[in-house]
Amino acid sequence: MAIDKELLEILCCPQCKGDIRLTENEDGFICEACKLKYPIKDGIPVMLIDQAEKL
Amino acid sequence: MSAGGPALEGTRAAAGSPRAWPERVCRRLSEYYTRYYRDTLRIPDWPALVEARLAEETHEAMRLDRLEAALGLAVTGLSVLNVGCGTGGFTVMARRAGAAAVGVDTEPEAVEICRLKAEAEGGGVAILAAAEHLPFSAEAFDLVYCFSTLEHVADVAATVREMVRVVRPGGALYLHAPNALGCYEGHYKLFWLPRMPRALARWYLRLRGRPPGFVDTLTPLLRGRLERLLRDAGARIAPLPAAGTLPRESGSPLWPVIRAYYRLFRISPHIEILARK
Fold first, then answer.
1. Strands (DSSP E) found in chain A
2. Which of A7, A11, A44 sits opposite B128 (nearest CB)?
3. Nearest to B137 among A12, A38, A46 (CB)
4. Which domain holds residue B96?
5. Is the Cα torsion angle B256, B261, B262, B263 positive or negative in sign?
6. ipTM of this predicted complex?
7. Cβ neighbours of B127 in A, within 8 Å
8. Which domains are delineated in chain A?
9. CATH number, domain containing residue B20
């Protein structure tokens, strides 16, 4: 399941609703404001606050 | 609702007949629903329910027809968020109908099955996300669809607020949930006393040979509360076309009494709401 451009446009941080960015190796999304990384596991974005990695 | 949605013509159930999934998808579906129907709910005829889930798109086609009738237009060209997508049956049918459909759920196994279906379909999106904390920017969708999910969420009010937030102005929300005033528990598939207290429900489930744990995860819902939450979040309740005849629930010998209760008090076993923002 590729992360397409249209999806990237509407995805946001589930906690602060601010912008997130796809990491360079496309293994997750970073929210700079919350200092959280939401991983992409086996092609599935895991946008769960309690499973985000603290940066 | 949207310039992208053509006028509704014909029925989707007739148009898009569901196809069989590849063996690996069927195996995962079978394992997932066996755990649910046999182990979690201990339903006596669980194999038939698991079998039906292998082609759940058949039911979802009918639900899509109902949704389109409620909206008064086809979902073609609409961006649709399916909150509580489960194993993706509805998302698949909405996508086949030409919608840009995204599904979210908190069950990793279910979302993985959605991913496998997306692979087989050559498209489709499923994301692990909580309904109370949707990872989408405001006004991102034309339509939010939420079927048999609100009774499962931890925070109903937060979920409704989030669903309204992500719908664009002029967009729609379609909610469908069991009615706490109904006489049937649709998960356990048992006759149920309306608004049965939890302690009594647990005792009753044990009496019927069912594991009572699952009932603790369910929130009883009433139409008035959901409508209030929607209005508080900034949506307005829209009229729905008549839903046809009341479906018979289980083979209960009490059915004539139950039907009389539903008719007398004008109660539906389900809450179905269309709202617009």
1. 21-22, 28-31, 36-41, 44-45, 53-54
2. A44
3. A12
4. 8-181+213-247+270-276
5. positive
6. 0.96
7. 44-45, 47
8. 5-54 (2.20.25.10)
9. 3.40.50.150
